[in-house]
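User: Structure tokens for this complex, please. No commentary.
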Amino acid sequence: MSSPSDRPLPPLSGPVPGEDEDDRLRPGEVAAPLPERFDAGLFYIGRIRTPWTRRGDCPRNARQSDAVCTIEVDERFAAGLTGVESCTHLLVLYWMHRARRDLVVQAPRHYGEPRGTFALRSPVRPNPVAASVVKLLGVEGPRLSVVGLDCLDGTPLVDIKPYFASTDAVGDAVVGWHAARTA
Amino acid sequence: MSSPSDRPLPPLSGPVPGEDEDDRLRPGEVAAPLPERFDAGLFYIGRIRTPWTRRGDCPRNARQSDAVCTIEVDERFAAGLTGVESCTHLLVLYWMHRARRDLVVQAPRHYGEPRGTFALRSPVRPNPVAASVVKLLGVEGPRLSVVGLDCLDGTPLVDIKPYFASTDAVGDAVVGWHAARTA
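Assistant:
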């Protein structure tokens, strides 16, 4: 398998017919009409290179894979990485550009039962900003090697933050509906 | 002190002269020209009510205060909260609407030494999306009572996610530059 960084960057596009979710609602799902205007704008500050080029190939969550991924920060913003090398872990925000945004209640294929969007980590949400904690392996210029991502190759990068155990780590947190499901 | 929810919502605005950072750079700071166009748009899906109406009053980080804050989700998206009540903790994304966006190296007042934006949790960043872990106290209709926020009253809400200890909690993570500073 070729290294992700050697492959050409996939084009940015919306949902891909046949591969992404379509417009039909599953039983129990609820769509909300979206506002007519955006309230704020995001810059893509880089792209994320991963081994996964189709939605179905992505791991279900970031702990299901130890694949090394590469975060490529645009040259314009690369000076912002100064000091990042001293972090063991980072919080990475990225834009799930292929997800629809109008479902407030949804039934992900692997869960079945419908739940509120804000009780799920599904990419389908009004603002499809994902947040993943990654382990930092190395920094080479504007490129970070990390473990802990589960997104598509070419995913747009939104932000990188240092992960502080003191404020970000809550080891005994419980997601009740999920715990009940796996108990 | 009146409860935040009784006060009128403060208007949304950019940096406030005299209170927010101004355009001058401190020694060592570096500004990057921002792209001419946004790549994606955000909807404000609600507002956050906190006791803090001026930047200087906000706690330095979310663990410095046990003030109860209220997250108010717009009616349009309120059905998305179904199931959230079963979570002990949430990851809340919000928009730091009063921060400038062009600094890639910055010297926050309380740290002095300049560091890359992506090694800091400063609100000043190309995409001023903050991520805070909160403890959920209660849900009443479209309102969540939480502890663990440090933002201004009226801050626009971007997303709410369930916090999974299995993927989000890394208790032994270290931010090297910060650890060296406090050691």
